[in-house]
Amino acid sequence: MTETLLRAAAVARRYGALEALAPTDLDLNGGETVALVGPNGAGKSTLLAILAGSLQPSSGRVETAARTGWVPQRPAHYGRLTARENLELFARLEGVADPHSAAAGLLARFDLPPDQPSGELSVGNRQRLNVALALLGEPRILLLDEPTASLDPAQRRRVWEVVDDVRVGGGAVCFATQNIEELHHADRVVALQHGRIVGSSAEEVFG
Amino acid sequence: MAAVWLLLRKDLRVLARSPLLLAALLAYPVVIAVLVGLVAGYASSKPRVAYVDEDHVPPVVQVAGHRFHIQTVIDEVSQNVTLVRMSPAEARRELADGKVVATITIPPGFLEKLASTVQSPSLVLRTTSGGLAPRVTQQMQALVYQLNRKLQDAFVAADLRYVTLILHGGSTTVFGKRYDVLGLDAMNRELAALPPSERVGKLRQFAAFARLALTQTGSALKATANPIGLEQPKTKGRTWALSAQVQAYGIALTVTFLALLLAAGAAAAERDEGTIGRLGRGLVSLGRIVWAKVALAALAALALGAVIAVVFGIVVEAGGVTGGEPWSRLPLLLAGVALAGGVVGAAGTALGALAREARTASLVAVLVVLPVVFLGLVPRGVAAPAYWISDALPFVHAVRFFAAALFATHPWRTVGIETAWLAGIGAVLGVLARLGMRRLAA
Q1: Is the pTM of this model over 0.90?
Q2: pLDDT confidence of residue B42
């Protein structure tokens, strides 16, 4: 029997009169990769941010049974700090036992220049650092918002390897994408449009 | 508190790697402080007053037997105003245009009345109805007081000539007619030559009493002219530039500027860099993010405030200037600087959170900081509402705290009151910052 690692019950988000996300239920199970697909403004990023705990839902609740890693759509790190310093800072904030080793391991794994201010990194390297930050503390739940949008094919492959590592290790992965070719990485597809789940295949939103 | 410390250390590291920002944050308040100093200096400079002579007073006049060089007398007495000689029409126009703050007119017949020594002529003062009018009136009253003091000796000497005449006798001319006066001395001699009788005795007694009283007249006249004198011994006190207010304002201005901009920029940068979302998902509470920004502002204020206080102390020490406690009260001052920095930091965090973008936050902070500072410079008597508004802001309380810490003989009451004010304002601003941070994270 598969273990449910994350359960979202009727989560919704409103910005004044605008309903960014209608009440939505979603479970993420161990060993499963879920793709959120839909056009711009469908509510994918809002749902992922709520699942990650970065955005408070207007209603509903999220329960998690494991540590969560989050890759926001836009790289989120301090541009004046180096990649190493960013990783060590967030490792400490995550409560990682050995921040120095954890940072060193991720720098090597993602082939990141350790001592260059992250604001001066290439777009691809910044996105890789963004993904690396999500892996601090070895999360069992990984949430990724269009993680390969600015990466070259080799870098994309490395990201999917990371995703597979988490899934194979019994974790749950949920990623948002507009790229139909990436859906083959998913075990399950959730199609969103106008802030609502409208089906379980890309055809339902892209035709 | 580990998370607060980690964020604070991160912000300090970011600040250290932004040399241009750091230099601007340090230089800007110093420039502003100098400009405020210049403005304050201008405010204490001599106002320009038109001097209109409708009586055509000659360069040298004689009053009660004393010669006065008019320009020298004016130079000596006009310590607080600059008198500029003008025609009546010119003076009226310049007063209307605001080029002079007042006109003082010597009306026709002034000198004649003055020379008579029995009438008091008047000068005519006209001022605008602006905020400077009361100050100019006071300064002109001081000028007339100084003039009267100059004339007083001549008037007393003139009056004493008549007393001397009554005492010792002699000749004098009054309204062009010559008189020979017997005098009390001669009267005594005449009475002594008369056969003694009760009536002669009464006259001699009166003459003796009158003589005694008149010999005191000189001192009595001087005392009447000046019941209370004012002595001004030379002391090596603080100059305007080293005054308590300037030092307190300088530090408060620098702290306010630095803390507000720094906290606003640091708070907004968390959104600019997208890290507020990463931090806000359980790593650090929004309240602790606010505390980290408040601590950053307090620490930066403390560092800069300490540098200014030490430099000021060294200047005061090197100049051998008396007054104030630049060294023994330094810890108290720095405690106030850190507190004020933190309170202003809370305001900055709220601004940064509301602005949501670092450049906008910096611009808003600059726009906010100057009115806050200038409101604190408005004296209560000039605009009471401005004074009340400034009471609700941290700047003026920081100034009072710093001034008391450095210069008050018994600072604790003021320090206690201002600490309570700052803590109260800080609590309100902290709540606003926390609410703003929630909006920033949304």
Answers
A1: no
A2: 56
